[in-house]
Amino acid sequence: MSRLTFSILATGAAAFAMLQSAVVPTLPRIAAEVGTDQHSVTWVLTAFLLCATVSTPIVGRLGDIYGKNRLLVMSLGLLAIGSIASAIAPNLSVMIAARVIAAAGAGVVPLSFGILRDECSPERMASATATLSALLAGGAGLGMVVAGPLVDCLGYLWLFLLPGLVLGVAAIGAALTVPSSPVRSPGQLPILPAVLLTAWLVPFLIAASRAPNWGWGSVRVVGLCGTSVVVFGVWWVCESRAAQPLVDTALVRSRGMWQTNLIGLTAGAALYGGFAFLPQFLQAPPSSVGSGFGVGATGASLLILAHPVMSFVGGFVAGELARSVGAKALVVAGCLAASGSMALMAFNHASRVDVIVANGLMGAGMGFMFACLTPLIFAAVPAEQSGVAVGINTTLRALGGAIGAAVVPAIIASQAVVAGYPAEQAYVLGFLVIAGLMLCATICALLIPCVRPGTQPSVDK
């Protein structure tokens, strides 16, 4: 694989990760600019997560059938068009529609990893996937960091316009340089499973994202969750019996895959659950709340900066370290480090140094974990199923992120409020919830089949 091709894949993946997270700390500013309320503006994030979660496995499967390079160009184009349209949207409704268009390009992640598997030599596979995973993990954190200063200096439209222009150039580059897929899985997109997948994911994600406003025991939330459970059962039976399933249920249940999928789900919940309330914690006035630092958006971004930096560093070095200690060991270490960092933050957050150290440790742990997760997935599936396998994991990561971004802030908001901010014990509870999620991920990582360092994991299906 040429450096230019890899650069295009890396640019697309990193820009997508930034588009997911960058709007979180800037939603109040966007609401003021487009003339809407705080409740309605959250759909800018919710709609993106909804569409991304649904489209990822579908686009991954289409890439396996029709060629990953074609679908990559299409995905990068949708991301670019949706981002630019979001920047120039005259009102909230148009912005939400544009975000849905952008999210339809979420398949760029499984497609990029699938192209790496098709094109990279075995010697370069570990380092290439580690670097791309590091950019994904670091990009999500970097989006949180650059959002505040970018909006303060240039306005919120550049939050969408800048990545949109970069993605447009990447789409053109992909069309010219990314080679045709040598590995394909013959067949057609299963329409009924795709419809059923959408029919159970959308109600569940709407319920999870709106429950803080509607109430967890409200008729709407209970009804949506009940509908999702019923349709999920129908979808699972349909996929199990399909000759050409969209999501191979046997693959999802296979030894080596279910562990990595649960790690993706819990780590996504922890990552976006933290992103959803950490800026508020840092901006809270300490005189009123007993914690926080009273900084602005730019100050909060600087305190979080250690997270994306160490995410990238951890992911970048993970490929070489995995040759010596094994991918599983680094996933376990990364999950444990992330859990420990949030436990440390819960009980030791008095100074800015405490925050920086905890964020750096969290970032390094996430970098190790995400960088080594993809090679373990590749080793568990045939080459022709790589796109859908990574798509499943990416979908679960996005699903976890949607749940975490809704549930963790709701838990914090349910505690005592002082001067418009949750009290200190509420934030402590939030940090402990994230630590608990990463501890669950650690347990799942320990159950991944053992492999010898320097070899690919062997997985019994």
TrEMBL record:
Domain Major facilitator superfamily (MFS) profile: 1-453
Transmembrane segments: 40-59, 71-90, 96-116, 128-150, 156-177, 189-208, 214-237, 258-281, 293-317, 329-350, 356-378, 399-421, 427-451
InterPro entries membership: MFS, MFS_dom, MFS_trans_sf
Keywords recorded for this protein, A-Z: Membrane, Transmembrane, Transmembrane helix, Transport
GO CC annotations on file: plasma membrane
GO molecular-function term, one example from the UniProt record: transmembrane transporter activity
Subcellular location: Cell membrane
Topology versus the membrane: Multi-pass membrane protein
Name of the protein this chain belongs to: Major Facilitator Superfamily protein
Pfam families: MFS_1
